[in-house]
Amino acid sequence: QFSLDVGRFGEAVVAWRQQPADGAGFTRPRALAAVTPDAFAPEAATFAAPFDVDGEGAEGPDALGPVAAAAAGPSRLVLFGAGATVLAGDFSDTAGAAPVRLDAGGLQTPPDPQGDLAAGGAAALAWKANPAAGARGGLVLRERRADGVTSDRTLSAPRGGVVDAFRLAGSGLGDGLVAFTQGTGAGRQVAAGLVDAPPDVFNAQAPLEWVRGERVEIAWDPARHAVRRISYAVVVDDEVVADGLRAERFTLPLADVADGRRALTVVATDDAGQETTSVTADLKVDRRAPRVAVQVRGRVARVTVSDGRGRSGVAAAETRITWGDGARAAGRARAARRYRGPGRYRVSVRVRDRAGNAATVRRSVVIR
Q1: pLDDT value at position 147?
Q2: Which of 20, 55, 87, 126 would you call most buried, defined as having the most Cβ atoms within 10 angstroms of its Cβ?
C-alpha cells in the first residue's frame, strides 16, 4: 500500500507500507517515505533516499495501518495508524523526525488517518474513532492552524453506528471537507464535515526607501482562502488606521504616523471572524529636514548637522556651508571656521537627509 501527494510547485512525497521479506532486515511491516523538492531545485527530477517515518528502526510497530501522505511547500506529512493509535511524521525536503501521537487515547479499532497540508503548516486531519463493539462510532476531524494550535471535533451521523469508510479532500490552505459512511443495512448513512481554516499566511509590502510625503502607497499579497470572503485592516504600530478593505492596496495618510521606523501589518479577517496577521513590514517615515546647530567660542564658529535617532540620517555629501567671510565648506556634517577678525557674519547652511528632506538654515554670529 502506498500514498502519493504533489504540491503546487511539484514538491512531492510518496509513503508506503512495506512488508518484510527474506533478507529485508526487518520482521514487521514498515512505514517508509521518500521526497522530491519543488520543480525549481536542481535535484527536482529525483526522489531522495527513502527513510523510515514510523520511528521504529529495524522493527516496525505492531498492526501498522495504511499510510497517507501530504506535501505542501517545504513541509511533508505522513499519517498512519499503529494499532488503535494515530501517528504523524512531519518532515521537510531534507530531514525526517520521529512520529508524534495525535489521538487522545480511547480508540479501539484502526483509525486509518488521512490529511491535507498547507505550505504554511496548517492542516486538516481526520481519523476513525470506532468502539471495539457497540453501535455508535464517529470520525475525529482536526484543524491544525499555521501557528500549531489544534482543535478536534468528533462527528457522527444521527443514527450512529460504525464509521467504515471516509474520504478527506483539502484546499491546500488548511481547509478540509470530509465525507463518511456510517452504520449498516437500512441505517447506513452518508455524513460530512468541514474544517474552515483562517486565511492563509501572507506578506505586507512597504516602500524599501524612506518616505517623506503626505501619504504612501502600501500593498499586500492576497490572503489565500477557500471558503469565505476576506476583508483587510491596516495596522501601524498596533493601531488600526483603516479597516473593511477589500482590495490588496491602500493609500496611507502619514499625518498621524510618527517619523521613524514603524511596524506595518495587515490583518485579514474572513466572514466567520477568523483572523490572520501578515508578516510585519518596515515602514520608514522621515518628513523633517536635518537640524543645524551653530556655536561660537572665541573666534571659532562650529556647525553641526544632525537628524535625530530613528530617522534616515544626514546626507553629509550634500551639506554646503557659507561662513559669511567668503569661505565655504562642503561634504561634512561637522565643520568649523576660525575668523580673522571681529564682526557680525551671516552663516548659511544647506542640508539634506537620505529621505530627500532639504532645508537652508541661516544664522548670524558675532565674533568679538
Answers
A1: 86
A2: 126
CB neighbourhood size of 37 (10 A): 19
Separation of alpha carbons 283 and 215, rounded Å: 12
Which set of grid coordinates corresponds to residue 315? Answer: 546626507
CB 285 within 8 A of CB 254: yes
Buried b (16+ CB within 10 A) or exposed e, 271-291: eeebebbbeebebbbbbbbbe
Q: What's this model's pTM, rounded to 2 decimal places?
A: 0.79
pLDDT at position 24 is 78
- 264 by Cβ neighbours in 10 Å (0-12 / 13-18 / 19+) ranks as buried
Please name which of 187, 251, 266 lies closest in space to residue 221, comparing C-alpha atoms: 266
Residue type, 200: D
Helix, coil or strand: residue 229: coil
Grid cell digits, residue 18 = 512495506
Distance of CA 285 to the CA centre of its chain: 25
Residue 286: pLDDT over 70: yes
Q: How many angstroms separate the CA atoms of 147 and 226, rounded?
A: 19
Whole-number Cα distances in Å, 325 to 38, 207, 292, 319, 364:
69, 43, 19, 18, 12
